[in-house]
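Teaching soon. Invent one.


***
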Amino acid sequence: MWTSFIESMTVAVLILYIPGIALLHTGGIKNTYGVLLAPLASIFMLGFIGEVFAYTNTVITPAGLWLMATLAGLVIGAIFNSAFKIDIDFPEIPKLASILYVLAGVVGLIVVYTSAVSSPEEFCQSVDMAHHINTVQSFLDASTFSSMKQSMYMGPLDVSINPWHGGGFYPSAYHICCALVASMAGVSNALAINAFNALLCSVAFPLTMLGFNGYVFEGKKFQICAGALFVVAIPAFPWDYLVYGPLYPNLMGFSIMMLEAVVFMKLCEVDLPTKERWYIFGLFILGGIALSLTHPSTIFFLAIFLMPFCVDRIVRYAFNKEKKSKRIILKAIAVGSLLIVWALFFIGLYHTGMVQKMASFDWGVILNHKNAFYSILTSSYMGIFYCAPSAFVFAAFVLVGFIYSFVDRRYLWIAVAYLMFCFAIYVNSTSDGAFKHFIGSFWYTDPLRFASMAAIVGVILATLGFGCVTSWIFRSVKSTTAANWIVGILVGAVGCFSFLPLNVPGWYGSLFPLGSAHENIERSMKQSLYTPEKKEFIAHIKSIVEKDALIINVPGDGSKFIYGADGMRMLYRSHGGYDSISNEKRDSRLIRQGLDEYTTDKDVAHALEAMNAQYVVLLNPDEQYGNLEDENVLLQRNKFRGILDIDESTPGFELIYSQGKYKLYKITGIGA
């Protein structure tokens, strides 16, 4: 099974990197950045071609989509290079650094994830997982790969049974890539999702940060290499994203978004030739579209992160040919205008319907002011929320890097960006009200998303701080041999604190953050709704029911995962949306509230006939709906009372297989 996992990760590498390499390397970026920036181009190519085929109502196989994206990249890149003869000059990346960053990612993966799960097919069963795994299966059934028409009911047989009115736009680059992995590697959707997540955490994100560090710290080879010590050392990102939510589209977007920052910084270089600038501008637009197909929140993140950079560029390079007095005034006007436009942009977006819907989420007050400050200072970023561990060693180097940025002001804008994200964490964890919802509106006021932002920028500051400390050692210690020994011991010590899978309890978590992250994943995977016993039951009835038979279910008993995990057509595939304020169809509402009475209720009978459902499955719903003294349970039970009230004595239903409290009924009247 683990062999299939490694093979699937290899396929995932091909999917995420090869189309982009084909486009960029043949099109003008010859050095390592032709590989590092490839995910942006790959996602764009896969997304664009997928949309074209969907728009023309033409099906395409996953392998065909990947092959077309790769060939299109080769052809477009070759034509562009032949016409314009462009060779973009990006900084050289030390070859050792590439190895170290990927090695750090792989070690982190083993420490945190693979050693915490019993099987590569074991998947997180948190709230959003049903959407992810079912959407992957839906893409495979439909052979259509479009973010514009996404739903969990895209298959030819499923469009008419969708409980809601149609699909719509949802950033689906993540689900499309997972579908390609599942099909091309020939593995289950659960394994494909886990393998693609492993790629993002252990390869894509480390290489993304290598690309950023290599650009910002150009020429500082040791410092760039040393960044591998910190790149995956904080649970807040990427490891918590494996089980929290799970926020897999955000994981994908956040894993590669700093590549877009590199492209933007390159675009802003003063001495960049015009032809190259237009090329980089095109790549910037392409990358922006790619990120929006992962998750739009990545765009908002970059808009905040790059604002201090834009101010820095104006202060350093704008109007330098003018006289000093005039130059200062013009720079001030330019900076003020930029900040006003930036503020108006966010205020305008805040009042749109999409952002207002996100801003309505309320996490309440999580920390008091003292603990929030402590959590930021120790790089846990969330304090006691979601068992976030303090990372004292990481935090120490972040602090050194932060202080050093005021000495070498080339990096001051990074420190300012870090402060902005820490401020957002502080506000969203300690307060409630309108200001909090404005600050956090673009990220659902979600503490983990803010924590990930700070953690990502913290990696850069920690790398800067470590370089500062080691440079001081080499300057201060007269003996080169002694200095090398001291630095070597320091590297070893930091590596131990960053990667050892220990969990020494301390205030707000662990002295070894990845040890705590390991236990977090191990604990989360044990919280199983779709248990091995239920899987065994489903595996048995799979041989009983017809291949494409539609089965009515109660999603809260774990059956919401069956379509994506086992390929059986379940009617209800989502954890929520079954209420009067959603766009649920009347037929769906009639079935879930009155199925047990379809033999006497003509409206329910007509709805059932339209669905053409043949079976009902119940997986011990008393686990979730048995406590009738709980008002919330009663509310949820009422939503599916027409299914939950079915038993062996209900007219129109025949019990054809049972295993303990797990039941399979055949509908013996309409739809049979």
The longest helix spans residues 447-476.
